[in-house]
Amino acid sequence: RSSIHLVHRLDVPTSGCLLLAFSPEAAREGQIAMLDHNRTTKTYFAICRGNGESLRERGTILEDGDVKNSRGNYQTASTIIEGVCGSDGSPRRCCLVRAMPQTGRWHQIRQHLGRLNHPIVLETRHHPDRKENRAWKELLLSSTPNPRLCLHCHRLHIKGDINGEFLPSSGIDVRCPLPSDMQSIIQMTDWAGEARAFAPELFGTRHIDQKPLK
User: Fold this and answer.
1) Cα–Cα distance between 87 and 13 in angstroms, integer?
2) Residues 6 or more apart in contact with residue 68 via CB below 8 angstroms
3) Which of 71, 73, 87, 139 is the most exposed place for a label (fewest CB within 10 A)?
4) Highest mean pLDDT range out of 76-85, 124-133, 154-163?
């Protein structure tokens, strides 16, 4: 009977790709690769408050402001952020944002988006808004039993290493479509078609292109 080991973690309210290994040695090799941001790319999508116009006007940006860790100490952090689409229309003022962390700090995407005045929908810790959160929960409860933070790890890509013992030499590339709750929100917006055109794989089936980490 094989044991399962976490290679990395997601915040409790975050959905998406999660890499597991069947031995501590494979997990360790995976963890080393995950810390090398020249080898590993993680792509997240978030539904954020605000119409996102200011983000789209700036194109792809590098947000490199310091963030707090879980103990309240500041650490350097960098996130590539791109506003995809959004509007002031139904169901509420919101936008779709793509984020690719270049460092692995605690809640860094959430903190950086909050600092850019586009906190994630249902954010309760970093730049929260009780009135907005209450309105979103009331809106979503009819279709989602437990509304949550709208942040999703869509893709995890690790380049191969011919010297690796456990990771495939061809690398790892996994993608996971948006969960039903986030898809439901997007379907209610007037920019749903634009989001589908930008990233159709967000609304498809999961994609796996690698062998298990043994």
Assistant:
1) 25
2) 74, 75, 106, 111
3) 71
4) 76-85
Dig out the tokens for 138 from the structure.
């009331």
pLDDT score recorded for residue 204 = 81
Instruction: Indicate the length of the chain as a whole number.
Output: 214
CA geometry: angle 170, 174, 176, nearest 5 deg: 170
Phi-psi label, residue 107: left if phi above 0, alpha if psi -120 to 50, beta otherwise: left
Instruction: Give mean pLDDT, residues 89-106.
Output: 94
- Report the distance separating Cα 119 and Cα 68, nearest Å: 16
The pLDDT of residue 152 is above 90: yes
Residue 164 predicted with pLDDT over 60: yes
Contact 7, 34 (CB under 8 A): yes
Element (H, E) at 81: strand 79-87
Buried b (16+ CB within 10 A) or exposed e, 56-90: eeeeeeebeeebbeeeeeeeebbbbbbbbbbeeee
